[in-house]
Fold each of these.
Amino acid sequence: MATADVQTNGHVKSSKYGDNMVNGLLHKEQKPSAPAGKNTDKDEIQLVLQSFRLLIADLCQQFNMGHPGSAIGMAALGVALWKYGMKYAPHTPTWFNRDRFLLSNGHACLFQYANHYLANYKSMTWEQLLSYHSERPDSLCPGHPEIEHEGVELTTGPLGQGIANAVGLAIATKNLAATYNRPGFDVVNNHTWCIVGDACLQEGLGCEAFSYAGHLKLTNLTVLYDNNQISCDGSVDLTNTEDVNMKMEACGWEVLDVMDGVNDVEAIVAALEKGRDTSRTKPLFVNIRSIIGVGSAVAGKAVSHGAPLGTQNIADMKKAYGWDTEKKFYLPDQVKDFYKDIPARGEKWVSQWHELVNKYKQAHPDLAAEFQARVEGRIPSDWAKSIPPSFPTEDTPTRKANNYVMKEAFGDIKAFMVGTADLTPSVNMTWKNYEIFNPPDLKPTSGSVGSYKGRYIHYGIREHVMGAIANGLAAYNPGTFIPITSSFFMFYLYAAPAVRMGALQRLPVIHVATHDSIGGGEDGPTHQPVELAALYRAMPNMHYIRPADSEEVAGAWEVSVNYKQGPSMISVSRQTLPQTGITSREGLKKGAYVAKEVQDADVTLIGVGAEFHFAVKLAEKLGIKARVVSFPSYALFREQSKEYQRSVLRRNEGIPSVVIEPYVSLGWERYADAGFNMRSFGHSLPGKYIYDYFGFNIDSMKRKTETFVSDWKNGSIGRGEYTELIDGSAH
Amino acid sequence: MATADVQTNGHVKSSKYGDNMVNGLLHKEQKPSAPAGKNTDKDEIQLVLQSFRLLIADLCQQFNMGHPGSAIGMAALGVALWKYGMKYAPHTPTWFNRDRFLLSNGHACLFQYANHYLANYKSMTWEQLLSYHSERPDSLCPGHPEIEHEGVELTTGPLGQGIANAVGLAIATKNLAATYNRPGFDVVNNHTWCIVGDACLQEGLGCEAFSYAGHLKLTNLTVLYDNNQISCDGSVDLTNTEDVNMKMEACGWEVLDVMDGVNDVEAIVAALEKGRDTSRTKPLFVNIRSIIGVGSAVAGKAVSHGAPLGTQNIADMKKAYGWDTEKKFYLPDQVKDFYKDIPARGEKWVSQWHELVNKYKQAHPDLAAEFQARVEGRIPSDWAKSIPPSFPTEDTPTRKANNYVMKEAFGDIKAFMVGTADLTPSVNMTWKNYEIFNPPDLKPTSGSVGSYKGRYIHYGIREHVMGAIANGLAAYNPGTFIPITSSFFMFYLYAAPAVRMGALQRLPVIHVATHDSIGGGEDGPTHQPVELAALYRAMPNMHYIRPADSEEVAGAWEVSVNYKQGPSMISVSRQTLPQTGITSREGLKKGAYVAKEVQDADVTLIGVGAEFHFAVKLAEKLGIKARVVSFPSYALFREQSKEYQRSVLRRNEGIPSVVIEPYVSLGWERYADAGFNMRSFGHSLPGKYIYDYFGFNIDSMKRKTETFVSDWKNGSIGRGEYTELIDGSAH
């Protein structure tokens, strides 16, 4: 094996280290086998690397699909991680204190699958590995790594998500360690490793993640940059010529270079050891030069990224390696043997950890009991008892009701990690003596000094990474954290790709979205959502909820904290809203309910969220008989029986429904026959003027509703036609 | 006036400069008045600054709303820009060669409005300035700057958008200059100035913009960083402690520091002069230390950001300045006089430019004619003649049809600026001898050397900035550019905030979104849209279009290039699709049309985009009589008359509609009574298996459709209930 070729970058201020590191590989008690030191068999490593590359090539060729290039280029990185660097247990893949690994360049998933096979993850059988891109719907080798499968911490693929998730995982460890570790009892000390490609460094999400992780001084995070300088369009320098190392240093990272990432396993292992070194004061970025598709005729070329190498090319690779060109999917026994001790090593770590936790229980019984509950993802089943049974009756913005409802629970229950994208004064989610999650040695110019025990996260003006970090927190271990994010509703469009990933993975994150309508007023159309709810209402597994007042906010929080099958979004108002006295937290949990029933109704008025009170007032004004339905959530309503749904809407009895919501109508056609909805973007006008400006005026709505019902009755409105009752529009 | 306090940062490699710059302020021919040099009256500048700050304070106090702090802190920057630095003509605000200015921190809009008033923009009357946050819906002073108003280049507010738009404006200038300028005839040489706050540096979008602008070496772009170190939650160092200057240098920017941004107008003017200096090789970033709410009791505090200062506080400010504490909205005549020559100066520049262009017409008549068409935003009215009348009849992905349709037009018409977020091989939008937009001295490792004349933009893996740059290109001057972006449809979720801003501003940008359904196959659910179309279908002013085959792709491009009231999105398939022979480009332009009519129909099958062919096949298989409607666009359909809509759907005749689209149903309830739609996220399976996996199988759909129609006829399906015919779900 070559001499370790770890180089410090010219900009790095940290002390240099070189060959002497090789003998300090991994913590001694974690050392699974002979380190990749000077006694290791060079030829054996080469055999492993060659086998790995050819296996990847064959697997992509099999069905003529897949992404071979970067997986092949990262072969040495795989050996360094799964054989030497990471502390994990393939036969106990959900071990609480395992190192977390994320492949942020998720298209290279085959890299991870093949390493899982080699490391002897039980579910990753040979047959399963061969199912990559086959017709098997139960393949454990999908086109991007998926959270449902052993060894995969989070689903990755959309670029930049993985590195942002990794920041969340590292925050989780820091917080748990600061909260529960005691001298001699490091019950949580796992490390987070994340591989990124060129793309994750270009995506804005990745930039946010790097900047924020550097600020947080997440020393338990190591990013391994697979620097192959190739993307789909060609060489990266077609489009990105920044000095990556310098940028990372500016963001507060320590930077190491590995000059030969293709073959120099030893250098990579030395870098990983540096990553795990807890005396660092910064997260570590390892810039590993690799060659996409190395060993093949398309090495270093974009064409090797997303297409199989071709049979002739693969045969030539085999020939150059001195392999049998006819043999496919060949793994020499020596390669399998190379990894055979991994499961036993892992189980030993698991039992050592259990022993430690048992001793911890004796030494710190109360703390250990709390820790155990966190490990099991339990919060008190009666957690909601701290929610007040009733609320002040004066007009209140629903964003303010957040605080009435949750301040006790946030204070008492450590699973809650509450955060905001720089909108603390707007979202009202702090609690008595809340502590900020920040490095303890950070002395901010304003605001209090925080610590890693802190559970209030100032994400900065970085909505996207906030969403993705929350996903990481939720995925750390089921139920250990209940992450809350918050921003203006409109800026959940910035966070949307992360919110979607949470929904796809069924991660229970709660998003609190304020300023959720034109009622936001003078900030104008850039800040007034009219179409965004359609996205979250359409998103599978997502509970999007618009509570009408404090009472419904209580229901929204209760149902959201209890929902474990995906994210929730609680959409609240900037402006004060009346407490109508006819809302119900129990009703909210069903998505829609009858707030006011009448005999022989002529019409059902559907009111929603911040504008529910319009429906109540309109019902009182109308010259015809109007029922009132509160309809805060499509998703919750759709979980109810058809009988319940019909009893709420009563459209099957021939009663037409009219909805009042100043969003575009898309979606309401399922529940209503007509609506007062927006047909354009909003307008900058103070809240007290804007509803009138757009025609949400009780007198005007009275006239239009009466005319509509009359037309409906006399049959002049076509079946299956949704009638738009608002004419006003601006932008 | 203080000695110029421009400092170079330690990291800057460029030569230092200091006092000697003061005498070289602005290009001599652009100098409007005595430079802010040593002869300028210090007291006068102080009077202007004080007046400006107090005016802002009074304006926010008037209606007890608004963002005073940063506008007050930037007073000196305002003087430097509108009095000295920028080349613009307030009485000819759309002058083609004007400098472009963007306020990326758009909440500080009052800063811009007040400067527009001082600079004598005609529409910004005193009465208008006083209307900030009033009840006037026709106020020219909305809560964020809006493109509709004089002097505002693009609507800003959502953070990071402005700086990204500015990159687009600077690209526009570079491209026009490289294409049309000739020795002695710099017909386009305007500069782009952009103010950013702390937030724009944190947002991922801003990071993408800085990285890409540095790569492009946009020497005609100067960013002025209002470095007040305050955001809503407190001091910026609570959440961001990166070395901003070092990061900017790593991204390829030249960095200058201005240490006293509060008072030192001269230093800022010197920095602006450096910005305009065309001998630079990089864009310029000026780090200007300022103090939010300076002069008030809340100076340097977050509370001054988004709330009025308070009457007592304002009175104290006035007292400290020696002003009459009772006077409100007071502008001394001397201050108005200070700006009075601005319009005449601007008109002189305008006429000089017209003179230059007239001489250019004589010297280069053909080029000048083409330039004139660009200035007027004209492309040949018969541009679409290059679209073939018919296409190959073999199965073709609609993404490939992009090339059939547009390669001639892209090649011939220079208004087209085609770009991609690293998906050139996937989107098929290059043309013969296309040239890449890149600095001419860039020699990429792979791919050809480009130039600023290039019209193909490799945006890198930066979807969000791609969308925002395209907005900047479109807003440079109406019709001068027709920007095209491209990516996977799913990654238009990353770009969505920019796409929305384009829709809000009615900017004609065309987004080409490929891999637009589960048919994308093995990439899996991260890359398979199921809910995203709901967002774009709900977005006002947006034409979201899913063409079914090459013929409809032709219609989609034609209608999109001709649509000037907002963006279009052409949503195309990864997979090959049959050419059914019953589609029509003219039909597409109406959003939906009857592709196959039958007498006494039992059902209407609605087919959409990549899955239209399922409707055609199903109609053939059914044991009942089925009409077939192709329905590529809600937005286009809604522009048609109610009569046309009824003639297409015929639901008013009692014929039920069944839609086939593997997206969630949201929205289809308006047009259909039942649907084969997704109820979950997708799944990783090769394209040839995935439709069956989710139940989009002709035999299965035949049975379900027949049962549904039978139930419909016998009345067992409730009115107003949308019937979901697919059971399958995955994630």
Note: The radius of gyration of chain A is 29 Å.
Amino acid sequence: MLSRPLGDYLSALRDATPLVHCITNYVAMNSTANLLLATGASPAMLHAQEEVAEFTAISGALSINIGTLSAHWADAMLIAARTAQEQHIPWVLDPVAVGATAFRQQLCSALLVHQPSVIRGNASEIQALNGLAGQGRGVDATASTHEAAAAAISLAQQYRCVVAVTGEEDFITNGTDHYRLKGGHPLMPRVTTLGCGLSALVAGFVAANRTQPLEASLAALACFSIAGSRAGQQAQGPGSFQVALLDALYQLTPEDLSTIAQMEAVHAV
Amino acid sequence: MLSRPLGDYLSALRDATPLVHCITNYVAMNSTANLLLATGASPAMLHAQEEVAEFTAISGALSINIGTLSAHWADAMLIAARTAQEQHIPWVLDPVAVGATAFRQQLCSALLVHQPSVIRGNASEIQALNGLAGQGRGVDATASTHEAAAAAISLAQQYRCVVAVTGEEDFITNGTDHYRLKGGHPLMPRVTTLGCGLSALVAGFVAANRTQPLEASLAALACFSIAGSRAGQQAQGPGSFQVALLDALYQLTPEDLSTIAQMEAVHAV
Amino acid sequence: MLSRPLGDYLSALRDATPLVHCITNYVAMNSTANLLLATGASPAMLHAQEEVAEFTAISGALSINIGTLSAHWADAMLIAARTAQEQHIPWVLDPVAVGATAFRQQLCSALLVHQPSVIRGNASEIQALNGLAGQGRGVDATASTHEAAAAAISLAQQYRCVVAVTGEEDFITNGTDHYRLKGGHPLMPRVTTLGCGLSALVAGFVAANRTQPLEASLAALACFSIAGSRAGQQAQGPGSFQVALLDALYQLTPEDLSTIAQMEAVHAV
């Protein structure tokens, strides 16, 4: 089913150490940078309207997360997304809490015009983004991944992009091909901004594997899934989990990823 | 003395997983979110003037911390505080370094008009807020908790709220009833923004226990006190302390809290 | 060669616990505060134009890092730097990714007018700052420390300041006297913003040792070098490394620093 072993995508990431331009929320900045560095990408956070276009243009990928939005940042996000579109640089949209306020909905609508390569969110966010009944009260997922699969496929077809719904079970689609992925650990939602970091990691994988955005994104999800499971085995709580997750991402091998695919932990829908 | 065992307040927090709208400083955002998630609340950080009123209105509580203040954020804090007051949503004020600059004093004066449910600060901040001789040079506590008790009682009576002074020893009052609480660990001031996180945790406890703001706030302080002591027993320094603190908050049981009360680690003044 | 044992500078830091006013990037704020607290300084992050002059004036030192720059912040950095210059308060410039965009180059040029006491950057940044062929693509060092030594000496002479180039090998100079320092660990570049934190720590050391900025800065670098080596010995990856680094900085003794100097781990060029 996969065109290449999943581990090849991790090898490509580490060979390229792609520069990922992150315009992300304040809560996630430090943990996102550390997640990327641990796995093998090179993060850079900057957001000034005076320089985002210049910087996006020299980046391997762009990752936009609207978590702690404000008007100036929204303007910068739009400039960066337009630059990415014009320069054919892959970019990822993480529509945090898009269902919660009108301000977020308006920005996401404007961002979608610039055709993200990948959208990653929790089930509530993907449903809200697709215009379905948004049940999201905030940043947590209250809808299940299963319920959001139809919304994800619809979004992927409408915007010709990859859509990843992550949660207890992940679902990822390009509108035609779909995968489900289990793994991770129940402590993951008890550590803040892991999903935000995953969005940026997806950007890194797609930067290093531009011809295969679906499989590259799946590889990023598989990294979190395997590393999360391993971290959970030795964690005493969310503090030690976060430490162990960074270590596990660093220690992860391409063989680990290829194995998970062969073991059919990844299923076609 | 307590109307219910202290552990009941923790049970209520975990049952409700209240959404805590945090408008807090950049330094504290990540650690505050993790402290809330570890204990059992659900944090959300957002601050745009375009959306704070909308979001405060759907939150269980609001927590405002003025640490890395700027003019736009000050405006948003005032909108959110007014919304909380109008909608009868509990809110907590953390007046970081209020004694250090005129800008902070002016904002805190304006925020107090909207009647916070709880004020939490270190001794220097509580004294400065009460208009007493501010000795605060910055974000550290240089006054002792003992010296700040009178200021806390005065503030609590003037604004009809709970005031918590935290430090080596904590003091908490609603103007009529007072408690002292020992515990914690000398490494706590060597980890940044634990006090900021505690303010947000107080907001979570009050959200889940709205009829008893004094005892709910005391329960939050007791969580930090017990978890801090336990983390200190296994820490090698501030790095491992922070990790162990999150694990200890996650592992904390209602019985742990009730026991500390019965053991009279909490004393009426 | 050294006027005092290197450990004396650490003793002075811990005796003075200098207040370090940090205007730094969002990614680095939390980790910088923790690095300073672990070692023995007292950090404070604030950046509003309304209050930076007032706060810089009561600080022991100022540390400016341009990582996540924007126009408002640039204005505040200039106010703070001018205040430091006027009040003879030592200040440190960390010119993150100065070679990447015109916006950064313009700001750094304007900041240099206010005569920093110390400039700390990676090799790419120091070369870009000196107007040499900037090869920096972002926040990572792609030039070697060795190649940047000439640029560092040139900058130090031009601005009469200390210049520190850090990386696998550190080079530090005041234009006349130079030191090289090895140590640290290969995991250090896999943890985000350690360099940013080091800049602020340099500010703390210079605040506590104002008459000897070169040796004080060298002591800060030596702390990172020794603590980094020790942390690396017990780390399983970047997550546990960061935890162990904070613990090691906390546990570091003046004797540790004096020993590294006697062992000639520090060499005059």
Note: Residues 132-138, 262-266 of chain B have pLDDT under 50 and may be disordered.
